[in-house]
Amino acid sequence: MILDDNQGYLSVKELLSPFTVRQFKLWAMNPDNIHRGNAVNGEYYAKHRKGREYNICWSKQPPREMWQPIVDNLSKYIDAMFQGKKWGMHIVDTITTRPGQSKIRAHIDTPYRFEEYARTTNDELFGVQIIIPLDNFTLENGATCILPGSYKNRYYYKDILENQEDYNELLTTQGFQFVSNPGDALIYNSRTLHSTMPNNSNNFRSALLMNALDVKIIEHIREIDYNTKTARNKKK
Question: At what angle do helices 18-29 and 64-82 cross, to 10 degrees?
Answer without folding.
Answer: 110
